[in-house]
DNA sequence: GACCTATACTGAACATTGTTTAATACATTG
DNA sequence: CAATGTATTAAACAATGTTCAGTATAGGTC
């Protein structure tokens, strides 16, 4: 008796996910701006109207899509294994991997991190005071910072600020590299290396 | 005889500018996403179709608008007057003014700097090798860097890389602050100050 | 099995978009 | 004055997001 409702609920969820999957494919193929309700409907082989039985509107679909995408991206986050014992090497390799995966994802990183809807921002906001306790990326950065001897004694809130600034710097570089997409690979590499070098210099000389 | 053509040309330019002005007002009031050809037409008191006699399409209008906006923004760029004699203070104040004017401009900075059309990018691209010779912001940054004694002897191309990284960092911070627009003013201020501090530390210890 | 009710779904419609085009008014030229 | 080219409009087209009246369907009740 009760499991009938469960099955209905399950089917509803499956339909919602089918819509999201179709939307995800379209976005991957044509970009977020070209996503349309009718294209989704065609792909799931239903009429366009039905989508409004499962989502409040296009905006809601996009938000859910970006939220799922964000979780995927974050799930691959962790420090490079400690085969490299020097904090500098670990920091550089971890940051480099983060930058390169973001770049490999093309415009997805950009779509996610620039979305201003509250439901997406509740996952992606990173600058507020106390963010480190809720954002794995910041927590990871702080752990990396603490692996430098000079910074072991630093207060949490100061390291958080530093992590936020470092994070914003990487964010800016990733976005610029995404926008200026015709940049030669060698220059791209030079910039990433220089970003890592200068950031490390800064870290090593924090007062 | 020839000046008839000149007058025609002039009237054409005036119409083009009237369209751009109307578009600019709408964007300022409602944002870039809400700009529409029909709204422009209504504001200039013509029918929508006429706009296509003056511009190739909506995209072309936006590009021209952003290009004009970019020139406006850049025109206000110069180093803080040297009443402060220490390079550090000059650097910090110049960067701070740049960050704060960008933030004050709301989403305009964002719309301009994230636009990917070649005609806009030809003004805004900043990461390519040799960019300092064409981008006042980068040239200014390099001049500021050279005012530090340690960096007087540095090669141009290395300082350019450093300027590009510093610029990208500011860019990332500005964008994050624009996206996370509900951040308390005190935290905003803390982040800007910390960005300036850490960047200065980096500059002072460049090898 | 007949009936009922809630849910799934469709087709058509509506309003709004960017854009094109046939027709027209107008100004300039010869 | 006739011809030519330019400026302008109204209407249409295609695509968009969204709504809604109606229809089928599936599950439960008598």
TrEMBL record, chains A, B:
SUPFAM superfamilies referenced in this protein's UniProt entry, alphabetically: Homeodomain-like
DNA-binding region extent: 36-55
PANTHER family registered for this protein in UniProt: HTH-TYPE TRANSCRIPTIONAL REGULATOR RUTR, TETR-FAMILY FAMILY TRANSCRIPTIONAL REGULATOR
Keywords annotated in UniProt: DNA-binding
Lineage: superkingdom: Bacteria
Protein name: AcrR family transcriptional regulator
Species this chain originates from: Paenibacillus forsythiae
Domain HTH tetR-type: 13-73
């Amino acid at each position: 008796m009760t499991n009938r409702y469960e099955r209905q609920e399950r089917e509803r969820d499956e339909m919602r996910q089918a819509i999201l999957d179709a939307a995800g494919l379209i976005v991957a193929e044509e970009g977020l701006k070209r996503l349309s309700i009718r294209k989704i409907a065609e792909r799931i082989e239903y009429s366009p109207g039905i989508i409004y039985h499962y989502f409040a509107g296009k905006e809601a679909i996009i938000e859910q899509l970006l939220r799922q995408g964000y979780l995927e991206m974050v799930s691959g986050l962790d420090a490079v294994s400690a085969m490299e014992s020097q904090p500098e090497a670990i920091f550089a390799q971890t940051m480099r991997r983060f930058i390169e995966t973001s770049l490999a994802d093309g415009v997805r990183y950009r779509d996610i991190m620039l979305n201003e809807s509250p439901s997406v921002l509740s996952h992606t906001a990173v600058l507020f005071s106390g963010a480190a306790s809720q954002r794995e990326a910041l927590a990871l950065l702080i752990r990396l910072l603490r692996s430098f001897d000079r910074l072991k004694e630093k207060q949490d809130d100061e390291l958080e600020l530093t992590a936020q600034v470092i994070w914003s710097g990487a964010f800016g570089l990733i976005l610029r590299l995404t926008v200026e997409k015709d940049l030669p690979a060698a220059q791209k590499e030079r910039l990433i290396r220089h970003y890592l070098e200068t950031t490390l210099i800064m870290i090593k000389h924090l007062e």
